[in-house]
Design a protein that fits this description.
Elements lengths: L2 E6 L5 E6 L9 H14 L13 H19 L1 H15 L3 E5 L4 E2 L1
Parallel strand pairs: 1-3
Antiparallel strand pairs: 1-2, 3-4
Helix pairs in contact: 1-2, 1-3, 2-3
Length: about 100
């Protein structure tokens, strides 16, 4: 298995996205970050920092928040792109994005 991204909107409302070894290779870290940045802009996300600097973890969290639960439930192709971008950008095998708690672990 290549990795798993879990996006949690509330207790019992988790979306587990698995990228397996049989899937296409993950994008390069830079490509993943570029995709997240594009989604951040397209979805109208706003920087959480008072100085306007957008950290990678902010992009991961805010893109999921603005995309919303309906998108993760109904647009599997988009959700897979999100998971692939997150795994590539963060260079981790497992990521949990908790919208209610504002955390990425």
């Amino acid at each position: 298995m290549r990795g798993t991204v879990i996006v949690s909107f509330a207790r019992g409302r988790d979306y587990e996205l698995r990228i397996t070894a049989g899937d296409a290779p993950l994008p390069a870290a830079q490509e993943g970050e570029l995709w997240l940045a594009q989604q951040f802009d397209e979805l109208g996300c706003t920087p959480r920092s008072l100085v306007g600097k957008v950290l990678v973890l902010d992009k991961v969290l805010e893109v999921a928040r603005e995309a919303g639960e309906k998108r993760f439930a109904g647009d599997i192709a988009w959700a897979e792109k999100y998971a692939r971008a997150v795994l590539a950008t963060l260079q981790r095998n497992s990521v949990r994005v908790d919208i209610a708690e504002n955390t990425v672990a």
